[in-house]
Amino acid sequence: MGDGICRDGGMRGNMFEKADIVIVGGGPAGLAAAAAACAEGIEAGRILIIERGGELGGILNQCIHNGFGLHTFKEELTGPEYAARYIGQVEEMGIPCLIDSIVADIRADADGKKRMTVMNRTEGLFEIEAGAVILAMGCRERPRGALNIPGYRPAGIYSAGTAQHYVNIEGRMPGKEVVILGSGDIGLIMARRMTLEGAKVKLVAELMPYSGGLKRNIVQCLDDYGIPLKLSHTVVDIDGKERVRGVTVAKVDENRRPVPGTEEYISCDTLLLSCGLIPENELSAGMGVDLNPATSGPIVNESMETNITGVFACGNVLHVHDLVDYVSEEAANAGRHAAAYIQSGAEGKAGKVRGDATGTDRIGSVEKGTIPREIKVKAANGIRYTVPSRIRLIHMQEEQLIRFRVKDIYKDVCLTVYFNDTVVMQLHKKIMAPGEMEQIKLKKRKLEEFEGLNEITLCIEKR
Ligand SMILES: Cc1cc2nc3c(=O)[nH]c(=O)nc-3n(C[C@H](O)[C@H](O)[C@H](O)COP(=O)(O)OP(=O)(O)OC[C@H]3O[C@@H](n4cnc5c(N)ncnc54)[C@H](O)[C@@H]3O)c2cc1C
Q: Could you report the per-residue pLDDT of 54-80, keeping only the tens digit for each?
């Protein structure tokens, strides 16, 4: 295999027939995973990033506002600046990238190899064999079709991400008078962006009684510009046949049903939808990766490894993140573990699917044939999910981060951690909201000391 970015999507002969680690997706997750695998000792030329777009950097390329990288670089960067740091690392390391190329399907074969069908304009369809695969395909926005808003299909309805692309990449304005449905971070950021570009954002309506976005984005993108946010409201009708002329917004009850008599007509020529992100897991599901219904992302262990040995997942394909810094951190973890998997020679011996409690016999201290003890991490009472959802002690680092989201707004509560039935940690939380990802750190020593530990439960309890 060669090095450098293959900008034309061509394969330069057959140089990409085989790789130790193939990373699907060249966004921040894929880039950080690749750099970490290389830093861990995998030869750069044995790693391959495959990206369906014409550029590396993923969705960050259209996020031209600042606020990225505060954790990772202690600086405030724009999305493209943040991506450029990782693209620079990957280029310096000489990791090959196949751009303008889409991975159409992946198989995990009984010999432990992963074989994928890739497609691009110059080569058509071709197969690449990998020892390990890192899934880093990101997520897509929930489309209008999934929202059931009545009315015609007039021009002027966009997902917030599409509008972001028009404004920031193509320099085109989707409209002049805007209503935004959904207060996720992309919707909030687009409220500010459209305002700065001269549009009048009349309202952000949110179905839930709380915003799905970060507090800092509500303050900086709505409050600072006097844009109203109506919680427990939705769009019940869209007026206009050729082009949007206005929308009707109504209050919703606790069952999220519109309350008759609360309708309000707002004239506008544009409706932006920011109603959630869906991890892109068609490839994962197609190869037999178990998905968590709460995240729509793969179920992973402490190594970011799915139920298929040698298949790792990170970034938004795993669970939707608010901060790209966490994406990079998690992806580096996946990259290091994929490298360890290859270095241990596990791929040649691994069976296709790992059962509940078994694991591969990789990484130095584990004797061949032993089954690493696996501890389940369970989300209960108010916690929507955890990542990871299994920990194998033998592979655990000295400290393990558990990331999670809550189901509702909770004020003045305890975040409680149980080891089996015993409370081992209680943290007082003034407020917890679904829009803010939470995390706790577990120490390996504590897990080792607890005899018979087989389940860790995170839950919310009254103080
Ligand atoms: C529209 C949108 C706007 C966003 N705006 C912000 C923001 O303003 N601020 C913020 O902090 N976060 C924002 N996010 C969240 C942001 O996505 C994450 O912080 C971060 O970019 C996730 O990184 P990732 O690498 O997991 O995914 P992405 O950046 O989405 O990268 C995934 C990459 O995988 C590629 N890919 C997917 N499937 C395949 C395939 N089959 N074959 C080959 N390549 C494939 C995609 O083309 C893409 O480049 C936004 C997300 C979206 C969807």
A: 999 999 999 999 889 988 898 999 999
Q: Atom 41 in ligand 1: which residue has the minimum CA distance?
A: 103
- 0.85 exceeded by the pTM? yes
Please give the distance, rounded to the nearest whole angstrom, from the Cα atom of residue 463 to the centre of ligand 1. 38
Whether the Cβ atoms of residue 114 and residue 135 lie closer than 8 Å to each other? no
Output DSSP code: residue 436: S
**What is the rounded distance in angstroms from the CA atom of residue 33 to the CA atom of residue 25?**
10
- The residue whose CB lies within 8 Å of the most ligand 1 atoms, and thus the one to mutate among 22, 60, 317, is 60
CA-nearest residue, atom 38 of ligand 1: 137
Per the CB < 8 A criterion, the answer to whether 68 and 28 are in contact is no
Which SS3 state, helix, strand or coil, does residue 406 take?
A: strand
For the chain, the residue count is 463
3-state secondary structure of 429: strand
Q: Which residues of the chain have pLDDT under 70?
A: 1-16, 144-147, 347-372
Termini Cα distance of the chain: 58
- CATH label, 143-275, candidates 3.30.40.10, 3.40.50.620, 3.40.605.10, 3.50.50.60: 3.50.50.60
Res 257: pLDDT: 94
Give the Å distances, CA to CA, from 295 to 20, 32, 50, 313: 29, 22, 24, 13
Q: Are 420 and 453 in contact (CB under 8 A)?
A: yes
Q: Which amino acid is at 104?
A: A
In whole angstroms, what is the distance from residue 69 CA to residue 83 CA?
10
Could you confirm whether domain 5-139+278-372 is CATH 3.50.50.60? Answer: yes
CB 130 within 8 A of CB 19: yes
